Each structure stands twice: as structure tokens, then as C-alpha cells.
Amino acid sequence: MNLISYKEAEALAVGVAKPPTRVIRRTLLESVGYATCQDLRVTIPNPRFDNSAVDGYAIACEADAHAGASLRVVGEIAAGRGEVPSLSPGECVRIFTGAPVDSSWFSVVMQEDVTRSGDNIVLNQEIEKGFGIRRRGTDIDVDELLVEAGEEITGDSIALLASQGLVEIEVWDKPRISIVTTGSELSRPGDTLQHGKIYDSNSAMLQALVRTRAGLEARVTYCTDDQIQTQSTLAKLAESADLIVVSGGASVGDHDFVPGAVSRLGKLIYHGISMRPGKPGLLGRIEDAIVFGLPGNPASTFVGFMLFVLPAIRKMCGVKDASSRWIQLPFGETSSSYYRDDFVRCAIGEDGIARPVGHQGSFGLRSLAKADCLVRLPAETPTNPGDMREALLLR
């Protein structure tokens, strides 16, 4: 096994993934989680017209904006209702949030800042020019870039599209993902657990990660530790899948058949990464399908998916910036230098410090459930409490 660095493995994983070529149309709600295939520009500004930012009274000129000014109320405008009257000095109009204002008006006084008696108000304080008025196009204006090609539509950004009156948009179609769980020791949840067996947890985890992180549904295929079955399973899935994720069977033991199967059916791009956990990870190609082999221990599977598989999937979904996004966090413990990059499952405390959580062995499950981030401790580098380290946020 010739080990490559984590950075090399990440670059190869993203590099081998091909961007999508098929465009589909989706309604706005259906488009959430998809990437746009073209730039979308503003056709309707926001605000669409000058309007009131508060409930209050619109005044026409600076001479009426001083404390103690007495004004006559000559009308009322509500959002979506009422004509915009003309105002003369000494006059005002009762107005509500969102109602249109004339572009020549001086400001809108909040109702809390006036004293009203019948059809007259008195200003309690001086009002600045433009106060209480939202000007047309101050948020987004005509022909500005609304959504960039390759941008993933989210619940946070969909309001921008809805503001343009769009019913459908064109997005990139998503890849077809298959998951293979290998291991003769695995039992499916619901089965009676025999001696020497364990329940399969990796397939559920991978399905959930594919669904929550990429908005895709992936079917699971089970495979025992058998050379012929491993090879036939991968060959069949490669006929229809764009990307195959294999959990288990990736190392160099007598019962690890995935590397050999990938080599015989296609091309093995790398096998072995200088990292912990996940050292036996592999990347290959069978026909047009990309194959990721992840070690079967749960933490190894999880870390390998987050670092390599997810960026590849995002690129295949048409996301412009597919690489993982890392931030700097202070690490809370002492760690001696290790010859491989170490990816530590950590919880972030109220003090903003990342500390290891749960058992850090590759078999550990609690750490996956409790971790807020993966902290990378670089190879051959000791770490002291408070040292800043790269962290990949998980929540």
C-alpha cells in the first residue's frame, strides 16, 4: 500500500469527479438542494418601489421635520391599498409599513414619536431626511446577479428567487449513488444477532449522509467477504451508478476484496492515505462510475465520506465550490506528533475551544453522534492546548 497525503487524496477525489451535463427544470421548492446551471439576474428590484419602513406619518419637507412641528393628517395609506396623495408643507399622511411613498417626500416619522389629537399631530423630536423610507432597489436592483451558476439553492436563498415571481428554474441533474456494505460479520437490523455477528450501522449512516448532505437517495447493496460476489456486485452497479461508495473490504487482509475487484474491473487510482482514521481508503473507476472504498470501521467510513466522497458528489451535482470548507479553531488538548494526519472528532465548548469527544478509536460510534467538527492535527506536528488547527464543521 503506497500512502498518499490527505491533500493529494482530496485533490484526486474532486479531480476525477465530472461536472453534470444534463439540465432539468424544477419548481422553486423542488429546486432546494440543486445547483443552478446559469446565472440568474434581477428583473424586479427589492424593494420594488420606495416604501415605508415603519408605521407612522409621512412628511413632505424639511421645514416640517423639527421637534414641535404641527401637521394636519390628510389621508391614510396601507400596504397594497390606497392612492399616494400629494403633500404640501404643513401636511402629513398616516402610513403603514410597506405602503408606497412618493420619491419626493422627506421622511416617515414613527407613530411613537408623535402626539396625535384628532386630525393633527405634533412631532416630539427632529427627524432626519430619509428616515423611515426604504428606497427602491437598495437590497437588489435590476440586472444585478441574483444567483450565480453553480450556486446551491437553499432554504435561505429561495426567497430571492421567489421575489422575482419565478415558478420554475433550470438546475443541474444529480448523480446516481449506490452504497455497498461488505462484511460476512454483518447482520441487518431486525435480524436475530448470532454469535460473532454485529448489526450493520454503516449503511444507515451513509444513506443518511447522502440524503442530508447532498439531497440524494441511495440504495444499499449487501455483500459478503467473497471475491466473486464483490466483483460481480461492483460490475453490476457500475452499469447504472455514477458513484459507488463501498464500506469495508478496503484494506490488504485476506478477506479484503474491494481493491482487487476495482483493479480487475477498471482502474485503481489510489489505495492508502496517510491519515488516521481511514488509512486503507481507495479511489477507482469502473467504466463511467467512480468508486470510493472506505474502511469498514464506522469512524473511518464517516471521515472518509466527509473528506473525499462528499466533495466529489457536490462537484457531480454542479456545485461550483465543491471542496470542503475549513475554519480555524483552538484545540483544547496536548497531542504528540504522529506520522499521519490525525482527524479528531471534537465538540466545541461554550469557550469556542474544540476538544475530543468520545472514544477516538476507528470503531467509536459515540464520538460520531456527539462531534461538532473534525479537527485536523497535521502529521509530524505536536499540538499544545490553544494551538489553532483546521476544523471541518459538521453541524
Q: Layout of SSEs?
A:
Elements: H1 6-16, E1 23-27, E2 40-41, E3 51-52, E4 56-59, E5 70-77, E6 91-95, E7 107-110, E8 114-117, E9 120-123, E10 133-134, E11 145-147, H2 158-162, E12 168-172, E13 177-182, E14 186-187, E15 198-199, H3 202-214, E16 219-223, H4 227-237, E17 243-247, H5 258-265, E18 267-271, E19 275-276, E20 282-286, E21 289-294, H6 298-316, E22 326-330, E23 341-348, E24 354-356, H7 366-370, E25 373-377, E26 388-393
Parallel strand pairs: 5-6, 13-16, 13-17, 14-15, 17-21, 19-23
Antiparallel strand pairs: 1-12, 2-11, 3-10, 4-6, 4-7, 5-9, 8-9, 18-20, 20-21, 22-26, 23-24, 23-25, 25-26
CATH superfamily of the largest domain: MoaB/Mog-like domain
**Count, helices:** 7
The fold-level CATH name of the largest domain is Molybdenum Cofactor Biosythetic Enzyme, Chain A
Task: Compute the number of strand runs.
Answer: 26
CA-based shape: elongated
**Helical content band:** 10-25%
Query: What portion of residues belong to β-strands?
Result: 25-35%
Distance between the termini: 34 Å
Poorly predicted runs are none
CATH architecture of the largest domain: 3-Layer(aba) Sandwich
User: C-alpha Rg, in Å?
Assistant: 30 Å
Largest sheet: spatial strand order = 7-4-6-5-9-8
Quickly count the domains: 3
